[in-house]
């Protein structure tokens, strides 16, 4: 797993620094699998373990370790339309969703093809 610990501002053009949704979309496009997480969240831990167990190396953004993490969490909540903002998974730059959507995709067999198409899984 690759944990993103540097300030997210260094990855962004100046014009998008104020908009958390634009930042989320940009970060999601930068890697094959991106997980927005909170370090103390058990569901976040489970989703990270799922991907690592499949041989996928996700990029993880721990929202509680970033000074603008609360803004990002609020934007993710709006994006998902739910009360729980994390974990949120993007594959190939596209929103897969929270834990329930990822697990449903895993169970019904659509997760592996998504990972292969994104270049995150080769087998």
Keywords:
123 residues, alpha/beta, five-stranded mixed sheet, globular, 5 helices
Account of the protein in words:
The chain is of the alpha/beta class and 123 residues long. 42% of the residues lie in helices and 16% in strands. The protein has 5 helices and 5 strands; from the N terminus they run βαβαβαββαα. The chain has a 5-stranded mixed β-sheet with strand order 1-3-2-4-5, with helices on both faces. Strand 2 (33-37), helix 2 and strand 3 (59-62) form a beta-alpha-beta unit. Helix 1 (20-29) packs across helix 3. The longest helix has 12 residues, at 42-53. It is globular, with a radius of gyration of 14 Å. The protein starts with a strand and ends in a 5-residue tail after the last helix. 30% of the residues are buried. Mean pLDDT is 87; it is low at 6-16.
Radius of gyration: 14 Å
Provide the succession of SSEs: EHEHEHEEHH
Question: Which strands sit side by side, in order, in the main sheet?
Answer: 1-3-2-4-5
Multimer state: single chain
N- to C-terminal separation? 18 Å
Count of helices?
Answer: 5
Q: What value does the average pLDDT take?
A: 87
Q: How much beta, percentage-wise? A: 15-25%
Total beta strand runs: 5
Query: How is the main sheet built?
Result: 5 strands, mixed
Low-confidence stretches: 6-16
The chain-level structural class is alpha/beta
Fraction of helical residues: 40-55%
